[in-house]
TrEMBL record:
Record-stated family: Belongs to the aldehyde dehydrogenase family.
Annotated NCBIfam families: MMSDH
Alphabetized PROSITE patterns for the sequence: ALDEHYDE_DEHYDR_CYS (PS00070)
Domain Aldehyde dehydrogenase: 20-482
Species in which this protein is naturally found: Pseudomonas marincola
E.C. number(s) listed in UniProt: 1.2.1.27
One GO MF term: methylmalonate-semialdehyde dehydrogenase (acylating, NAD) activity
Protein name from the UniProt record: methylmalonate-semialdehyde dehydrogenase (CoA acylating)
Gene3D superfamilies in alphabetical order: Aldehyde Dehydrogenase, Chain A, domain 1 (3.40.605.10), Aldehyde Dehydrogenase, Chain A, domain 2 (3.40.309.10)
Gene Ontology biological-process entries: L-valine catabolic process; thymine catabolic process
Domain of life according to the entry: Bacteria
Length: 503
């Protein structure tokens, strides 16, 4: 931790105010292309964390009673402000996270889509009514907010994933405490400022920063009712277990190992272009990155063309025009990726394209690793078993589609998968037989739009309801069932009914 460098400090957002932390523990936010220290982020103290939750708890008393139309109008204004500030948000994101400017705009835009969805909350938070279920008796449901909810977000999508969480939580009438990644919280803070400008009342959205201590406080705090998490499997498992043991709802989207099956009848040019974008975009730092390609039959002959296409991708700082692959987020990430590449060679995979130590003019200190391709990969190898979270593609050969499906279904993760084919029969059989929550057919990264819910499965997810879409309305609301009877003014109850039935 660096506590002396004179650089800007990231603030906390508590009760509608940007607050300078009183902590003694700080972390530098570093531009991954240059190692320039952009700002310092505080690790919030227990008092600051408690103040954020207390503010949210107090704000809930009035926010939960705010008319649903008034809530929706805030998000209509918020989406407008995000659009107006798109370039600024993308520039902040690229500086602290490293991804290219076009990809940073895409990061913001996919979050914006959820904000737009939140503005339609009047159509989403509807109950049900059954009229006259017994004589003069009606039953109906209310979908009411839970209270204070919390979100813990990762470094790789510092705009999109916070926007997956707090807009839907707030739109449904909850208040929120957000802990963004301590590696790149600046764009998240700018989004929080814009939310205040859009009319989110003081205390309805609070932001705290920190590491494991703050995560644990979120899991333990008795006034927090639900926790949403996106990040690694190790941390997500810890969050889910600790939060649920404390009686909270929890949804945890975690690690992945995403596969694509390439059938020999697929459109070669379109397929290869899609593979490159999905494997190497964002320097592979996506939970939905395509990290394993299974070539079926004659498609195995496409490897030389895939390698040649990959060589045309430009590695450079994310802010530079024409960049395809920016730096990875940190020196530690670079070391881990490089180590796994070395391990892949040691374990017998063929390093068909080595992206280590690329020469990037003007950015000698950047955390760069270029697109890397392994062939002759088998499932017992470390590069297959571990989520590399870098621009590394593993290629496996299979004789048939059935063999390829068996390989995917044997992997414990279930975030996303895809098939490339021109055969409707193959596509249909794939979508039926594959045991993965999100399926793409000629779509390499099948993240659904917010009308639907993110639906990763198996070891990639804990909790039965996903973020955004219809499922998250269920996650952030409690169903209350009301059974009512109104008697006519002249009606008298002449008998006592001691049975359980309604008459």
């Amino acid at each position: 931790m660096n506590t002396t460098t004179q650089v800007p400090t990231v603030k906390l957002l508590i009760d509608g105010k940007l607050v300078e932390s009183k902590t003694s523990q700080w972390r530098d936010i570093v531009n991954p292309a240059t190692q320039e220290v952009l700002a310092r982020v505080p690790f919030a103290t227990p008092d600051e964390m408690n103040a954020a939750v207390a503010s949210a708890k107090e704000a809930f008393k009035t926010w939960r009673k705010t008319p649903i139309g008034a809530r929706a109008r805030i998000f209509l204004k918020y989406q407008q402000l995000i659009r107006e500030n798109m370039q600024e948000l993308a520039a902040i994101l690229t500086a602290e996270q490293g991804k290219t400017l076009p990809d940073a705009e895409g990061d913001v835009f996919r979050g914006l889509e959820v904000v737009e969805h939140a503005s339609a909350i009047g159509n989403l938070q509807l109950g049900e009514l059954a009229n006259n279920v017994a004589n003069g008796v009606d039953t109906y449901t209310l979908n009411q907010p839970l209270g204070v909810c919390a979100g813990i977000t990762p470094f790789n999508f510092p705009a999109m994933i916070p926007l997956w969480m707090f807009p839907m939580a707030i739109a449904t009438g909850n208040t929120f405490v957000l802990k963004p990644s301590e590696q790149d919280p600046m764009v998240t803070m700018r989004l929080a400022e814009l939310a205040m400008e859009a009319g989110v009342p003081a205390g309805v959205l609070n932001v705290v920063h920190g590491g494991a201590d703050v995560v644990n406080m979120i899991c333990d705090h008795p006034d927090i009712k639900a926790v949403s998490f996106v990040g690694s499997t190790k941390v997500g498992t810890h969050v889910y277990n600790r939060a649920t043991q404390n009686g909270k709802r929890a949804q945890c989207m975690m690690g992945a190992k995403n596969h694509a099956i390439i059938m020999p009848d697929a459109n070669k040019e379109q397929t290869l272009n899609n593979l490159l974008g999905a494997a190497f975009g964002a320097a592979g730092q996506r939970c939905m990155a395509l990290s394993v390609v299974i070539l079926v039959g004659e498609a195995q002959k496409w490897v030389p063309e895939l390698i040649e296409k990959t060589k045309t991708l430009k590695v450079n700082a994310g802010a530079e025009a024409g960049t395809d692959v920016g730096p990875v987020v940190s020196c530690a990430a670079l070391d881990r990726i490089s180590s796994l590449i070395a391990t892949g060679e040691q374990e017998g995979a063929t390093l068909a394209l080595d992206g280590r130590n690329p020469q990037v003019a003007g950015y000698a200190n950047g955390n760069f690793v270029g697109p890397t391709i392994f062939t002759n990969v088998s499932p017992e190898m470390s590069i297959y078993r571990e989520e590399i979270f870098g621009p590394v593609l593993c290629i496996i050969n299979a004789a048939t589609m059935d063999e390829a499906i068996d390989i995917i279904n044997a992997n414990p993760n279930g975030n996303g998968t895809a098939i490339f084919t021109r055969s409707g029969a193959s596509a249909r059989r794939f979508q039926e037989d594959i045991d993965v929550g999100q399926v793409g057919i000629n779509v390499p990264i099948p993240v659904p739009v917010p009308l639907f819910s993110f639906s990763g499965s198996r070891a990639s997810k804990l909790g039965d309801l996903g973020p955004y879409g219809k499922q998250v309305v269920q996650f952030y609301t409690q169903t209350k069932t009301v059974t009512q009877r109104w008697f006519d003014e002249d009606e008298t109850g002449s008998t006592v009914n001691t049975t359980i039935t309604l008459k």
